Amino acid sequence: MASKRGLVLTAGLLAAITAASFAIWLPGTSTPTLVVSDPGDHLDGIEAVRAVLAESVRSEYGAVLEGAPRGPYEESAQAAARQARGQMAELLSASPPAGWEASYAAQAGAVRALGAYIVETMAAAAEIEAGGPGEAAGRAAGLLEESERLAAEAMALRP
């Protein structure tokens, strides 16, 4: 039979090996970053998606203003908002090279303003359905203009 000392020693070694392997295996708390090799192309892609989303929401919101039902617009606006959040997450996780930070910040502002525009158009659509346009319609127009202005600024700030 095995001695008590041998069993304790074996159990201790197994516990130490298990603890060490978990310490090595468990990931740290570092945040993932997106390494950008061509920041110009990356921003071009982000801007292309932002422009398509803005045009899509603008045309569908225009249909709601002309009397189209709100339901289909809400679904497509929620999908556009999810895509805008994804673009924002991509911009925030990117690690742009030196000299591109201002352009990335302006593009992030453009995408953020687009997301706010989408939310305001959904609120305006609800106001229209409830009896007429309210304050949200005016805020939405201003946010779309801000998104366009920041997108142009992001282009101008490129090195």
Would you give an account of this structure?
It is a single chain. With 159 residues, the protein is mainly alpha-helical. The chain has one domain (34-156): Up-down Bundle (Four Helix Bundle (Hemerythrin (Met), subunit A)), CATH 1.20.120. The chain is 78% helix and 3% strand. It contains 5 helices and 2 strands. The protein has helices spanning 4-25, 39-65, 70-93, 101-129, 135-156; strands at residues 34-35, 94-95. It has a two-stranded parallel sheet with strand order 1-2.
The CATH topology comes to Four Helix Bundle (Hemerythrin (Met), subunit A)
Oligomer: single chain
User: What proportion of the residues is helical, as a percent range?
Assistant: over 70%
For the largest beta-sheet, the strand count, sense and barrel status come to: 2 strands, parallel
SSE arrangement, N to C: HEHHEHH
Note the beta-strand portion.
under 5%
CATH architecture call? Up-down Bundle
Radius of gyration: 26 Å
Query: How confident is the prediction overall: mean pLDDT?
Result: 87
User: In DSSP terms, counting alpha (H) and pi (I) runs of 4 or more, how many helices?
Assistant: 5
First-to-last CA distance: 77 Å
Spatial order of the strands in the main sheet? Answer: 1-2
Shape verdict: elongated
How many discrete domains? 1
- The count of DSSP E runs of length 2 or more, i.e. the number of strands, is 2
User: What is the level 1 CATH name?
Assistant: Mainly Alpha
Unreliable spans are none
